[in-house]
């Protein structure tokens, strides 16, 4: 079982499959994962209780200070950063100051490293909060998770700890009017004696229908690359991901396999 946690608020830069040279921003506790999903493939392990989380979160001032220092250091060393990415030990939009931190990040990026793109990796469960939607619309690359085509597979893969249904999420994704990126993880696994596989037609067909409805500007398709929260999650090979991607391309939606 994975228990990898980022040990810093600003981490990296890491060379990312999706984003290039990416400086990470972790708005979650350094000591434990904090998320309202419990994805079977999560690299940070299983979601624990929320006890004590509020006082473990970095402050808005800390994030701004550390981000400024990291970008200034890279600029002084003539090292280019392609992306500043909100990721880390859980779901970044759960941070109570997420919107203000996005504003600070935009201002600091514009001042110190204007060519860096700002990305947010999010599970899209808080889109009923207009302030979070507004903040996500301000960044260059809002990357919103959509791993399933059916409610049953969504509950098995993402194991939501919120009452958000898959159809709620799809409806809320329409608010972006296509100005966002979908990120979709494909996996096979057995949970409580039952097999799940979101590469099957029953899921892929329904997932493609959702894509038609929400019309994202791009889809990123991938599979696991590291240890996962649930011990045995099977990685989907590149050829299978390419077959799924071809069907996305047929909808005239740009797609990338990473
Ligand atoms: S949404 Fe992200 S952080 Fe949360 S459980 Fe899933 S993979 Fe992990």
Describe the structure.
With 258 residues, this protein is α/β, with parallel strands linked by helices. The protein has a domain at 10-183: Aldolase class I (TIM Barrel, Alpha-Beta Barrel), CATH 3.20.20.70. The chain contains eight helices and eleven strands. The protein has helices spanning 53-56, 60-76, 98-112, 130-138, 151-158, 166-173, 201-214, 238-249; strands at 10-16, 20-26, 83-87, 117-122, 141-145, 181-185, 187-191, 194-197, 218-222, 233-235, 255-257. The strands form two sheets. It has an eight-stranded mixed β-sheet. A hairpin with a 3-residue loop joins strand 1 and strand 2. Helix 2 packs parallel to helix 3 and helix 3 (98-112) runs parallel beside helix 4 (130-138). The model has no long low-confidence stretch (mean pLDDT 94). The chain binds iron/sulfur cluster (SF4). Residues 35, 37-39, 42, 44, 90-91, 123 line the site of iron/sulfur cluster (SF4).
Considering the chains and any ligands shown, give keywords for the structure.
258 residues; alpha/beta; TIM Barrel; eight-stranded mixed sheet; three-stranded antiparallel sheet; 34% helix; binds iron/sulfur cluster
């Amino acid at each position: 079982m994975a228990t990898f946690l980022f040990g810093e608020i600003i981490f990296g830069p890491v060379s990312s499959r999706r984003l290039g040279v990416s400086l990470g921003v972790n708005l979650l506790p350094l000591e434990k994962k904090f998320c309202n999903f419990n994805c079977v493939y999560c690299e940070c392990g299983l979601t624990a209780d929320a006890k004590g989380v509020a006082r473990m979160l970095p402050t808005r001032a800390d994030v701004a200070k550390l981000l400024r220092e990291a970008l200034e250091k890279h600029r002084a060393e003539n090292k280019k950063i392609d992306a500043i990415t909100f990721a880390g030990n859980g779901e970044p939009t759960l941070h109570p100051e997420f919107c203000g931190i996005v504003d600070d990040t935009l201002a600091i990026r514009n001042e110190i490293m204007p060519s860096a793109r700002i990305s947010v990796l999010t599970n899209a469960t808080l889109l009923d909060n207009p302030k979070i939607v507004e903040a996500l619309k301000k960044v260059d690359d809002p990357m919103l998770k959509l791993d399933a085509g059916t409610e049953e597979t969504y509950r098995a893969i993402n194991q939501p700890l919120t009452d958000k249904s898959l159809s709620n999420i799809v409806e809320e994704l329409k608010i972006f009017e296509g100005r966002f990126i979908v990120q979709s993880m494909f996996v096979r696994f057995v949970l409580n004696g039952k097999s799940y596989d979101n590469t099957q037609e029953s899921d892929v067909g329904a997932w493609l229908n959702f894509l038609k409805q929400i019309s994202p500007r791009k889809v990123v398709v991938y599979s696991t690359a590291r240890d996962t929260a649930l011990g045995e999650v099977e990685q989907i090979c590149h050829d299978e991901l390419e077959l799924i991607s071809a069907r996305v391309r047929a909808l005239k939606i740009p797609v990338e396999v990473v």
